[in-house]
Amino acid sequence: MQNQNENASPLDRLNPRQREAVAFGVEVGKATQHPPLLIIAGAGVGKTRVLATRTANLLASGARSSEMFVASFTRRASKELVERVQNAVKEVTGKTAVQLPYAGTFHSIGYNLLNEFGEHVGLQNNFTVLDRDDAVDLMDLVRARSGKDKKEKAFPQKDVCSNIHSYTRNACLSLKATLRERYPHLRRHRKALAKVFADYTAAKKSQNVVDYDDLLMLVADLLRHPKMGDQLRSRFKYVLIDEFQDTSRLQFEIIRLLRPTGRGLTVVGDDAQAIYSFRAATVKNIQEFPDSFVSEAKIVSLTRNYRSTEPILEASNAVISRAVGGFKKELWSKRKSDQRPLLITVTDEIEQANHVVGAVLDLREQGVPFAQQAVLFRASQHSLALEVALLRAKIPFRKWGGTKFLEAAHIKDVLAVLKWSQNPRLQLAGFRVLKLLDGVGTATANRLVQELAGKRLTKRLAHVTVPQAARKQWSALSRLLNGLAESGWPASLEKTVAWYRPHLERLYDDSAESRRADLDQLVALGATFGSCEQFLAELALDPPGVLAEQKLSKENADDLLTLSTIHSAKGCEWKCVTVLSVMDGCIPSSKCRREDDFEEERRLLYVAMTRAKDRLEIILPRRHFQPFKKNVPAANVYSKPSRFLPREIHGRFEQRTASIRRSEPT
């Protein structure tokens, strides 16, 4: 992103504001327990470089890597950060092997801490981590056993139950408060939900499993422990947090428990890019940070942008400057341009789609490959008309947000066998495996998994009664499970896949070929891990992006246009960005009711605009399709441009009306 002399030292490659942030708390070359530091890092300002160089500077100034807790929000960001830290330390000190044992996502660091100290918060050894889908399925199993779905009218479905439970825990709210604020139509089910959640917690404990939220909840409990809390506070003298605007109340509580005075704490973030409240993230964490500790916080704002042209930043600044509250800042750039962002008015979504097709092709003719272009939108369904037009025009594209590789049913089937073999008390995995067999439905699978629970699985397999139709398959499954205990890794994965292939052919006869290729990729990936335990833990904590890359390797060899929701595009950049349907009802969403909701939608538009490096196009349809709602028939309705683009700032844009382009059918 930055073009400074790469032969200079890491500190010399920084601009003055960046150097101020990096050097804070290092006095006469020695790292100190400095007051809390808040680095406000606007879009495209070199945030990762600053955080990595600051971490390296602390290490080079006497801080030990074992004393550092460095949390990022994705595995990819964490890996990039660690690599940059290692390179910077090598340049400054000449050391070549700097390890950061507690650098990763909040959840992966939590997993490591619970493996060390879990016994102090009631965890047994060799606990299993449920991925998000498995947690939802366990919630469904508990929900079904409770009978609430039959006794209570319109009782929430499994996904909704899981979301309510997760939000309540991450937002540090009571169930009553969560229902009042986010699910008011479900308040009548509060007592029944409380019982289901209690049963869900008991089921996890009995099966020695934890879900994602437990990885944070239990770490918070560990830090409140009278003995272990002080021990961990003594261990972690330096805490550095990336993307602080995306933290939940629970994550901030962990941070405060680690550094109660704020000394030794560095957080980096941008309140103008806080867009994940639906995950229980709260922008108030970063807005209230300066007043959260006894020690006065140091605030350093990074405003020089290395990504976008000056006109794009002027338009983006104009949009976000009207936000209520937050840290005021003006991004600026040395990248001059005569091209202002475009405001394109179109008749409807069909004309919008055809206009985008024409513009994408024109840009490619001008030398901008599809891979350097992106089309962003508020919600996945907003791109459907465009997808049809792109297919008709034979423009290759990828859309971010579809079914992930590890979320595919056939992949989860194989992983369930491994999980059940590793942890026989994990009824959820056993339930999924048993339902693969002929003649085994929900009731039979439920009976069998309870009969086998808490026993030596391999010894009990021969002593349960299965339906006649499943006996041959049951024998094969028993042989597999007995053999896995003695097989090494990755041989056990290869044997599991071999056992599963006949089921694949039977269950997915219309798509077996592509699914077989997926299984081959799973085996290849498994061979890169040292053990089954490591393999399952890594996949559950944060599925590596390499899987998606492998699955799309053939497509990735081509030049692909990117279609993406704005949420999925955060952290990315392209030469040319188009934002669809920037009108009231889409951005902001028609679901907004409170001022906080509208302010987050404003930030969402700002994030979309700041993804563009050279060219930004915002499209304003005069009409849009409104689907059927209750007694209101589906129709094309007139729309207003987004309230976030008032006439007073239109001078920051070049305004055009789209020339009519109609795609010809092939």
Walk me through what this model shows:
With 666 residues, the protein is an alpha/beta fold. It is 46% helix and 12% strand. A hairpin with a 2-residue loop joins strand 1 and strand 2 (30-31). Helix 7 crosses helix 8 (175-182). It is globular and about 80 Å long.
Quickly list its features:
single chain; 666 residues; alpha/beta; seven-stranded parallel β-sheet; six-stranded parallel β-sheet; 19 strands; 46% helix; disordered C terminus
Topology:
Blueprint: H1 16-23, E1 26-27, E2 30-31, E3 37-41, H2 47-60, E4 68-72, H3 75-93, E5 103-105, H4 106-117, E6 128-129, H5 132-146, H6 148-151, H7 158-170, H8 175-182, H9 190-207, E7 209-210, H10 212-224, H11 228-235, E8 238-241, H12 249-258, E9 265-269, H13 284-287, E10 298-302, H14 310-320, E11 342-346, H15 349-365, E12 373-377, H16 384-392, E13 397-400, H17 409-422, H18 427-434, H19 442-452, H20 457-460, H21 471-484, H22 491-507, H23 512-526, H24 532-541, H25 546-551, H26 553-556, E14 561-565, H27 566-569, E15 574-579, H28 595-609, E16 612-621, E17 623-626, E18 635-638, E19 654-657
Overall shape = globular
Radius of gyration: 27 Å
Tell me the helix content: 40-55%
Between the first and last Cα atoms, what is the distance in angstroms? Answer: 41 Å
Number of separate helices: 28
Category by helix and strand content: alpha/beta
Instruction: Name the beta content range.
Output: 5-15%
Low-confidence stretches: 544-557, 662-666
Largest pleated sheet: 7 strands, parallel
